[in-house]
Fold:
Amino acid sequence: MKEVFFIRQNIDKWKSLEKVVDQAATCSPAELADAYTEITADLSFSRAHYPKSRITIYLNNLASALHNLLYKNKKESYSRFITFWSQEIPEVMRHSQKELLYAFLVFAVSVVIGVVSSQNDDSFVRLIVGNGYVDMTLENIAKGEPMKVYGSSSPFQMFIGITYNNIQVSFIAFVFGLLTGFGTGFILFRNGVMLGAFQTFFFQHQVGYESMLAIWLHGTFEISAIIIAGAAGFALGNGWLFPGTYSRGYAFRQGAKRGLKIVIGLIPVFITAGFIESYLTRHTEYPTFVRLSVILFSLISVIVYYIVIPQLNNYGKSKTQN
Structure:
């Protein structure tokens, strides 16, 4: 059968199955099971005759959605808490590598803009972080304690405030994806410019190396998490901006689920970053080797968990299908 006839013959049925997914809350388990049987039969036929077609991808995703609906009400064991981070997050990141790349590029370009702007205008950093913070930092530099700000309050109080703020930023970056991704891009841009300007400010006052050891001690996790939250926002925006072969509503819901899962999965990262910033960053007397080791460990952890493992999973899935 030619692909075009296969599509014409079944398109109305597939649209009705999309409605089953959309209205799953009002459907019985039997109805979901029947719908799943129907779609898997069509998927098997499509895989056999049109393995590289977009319709096969469409049917596979529709079958996956129905499968998830069928089993979401199963009684979850305590192992779900573990499998969420060990399996579900790497799996969702496997489908979000493109958004992660876009988020990284936006952030990297904005950092460069912050650096160049600060180098050409000494007042730029004041515009970005405020006169009060700059003046306080200048006083600390004059006293020979450029990183004193990290020890200005109690560790626990600092930990709560920083962790809350970082989680809030990540959710804002995600929710702003509703603005077709431009809102998420703005959050990434603003944070990137701030980082570039502030880091340049320290180099201009000959304490750049010390500032990097302090800032990136916690910033490796913190900045990485903001970029990953940006990927979640792009996933949300792309869901309804570029629905592909799906209905716009279905694509939007899938993008929202994917993005929300990523953001929730970032909470332990932000907690770790907040702990390091509150309890470790203030100790500038720690040996350089120790601080560099923490930075390197943090960077490797992020790259392995959010890029390498999802890519290996992707390779494994592709090899299995072939």
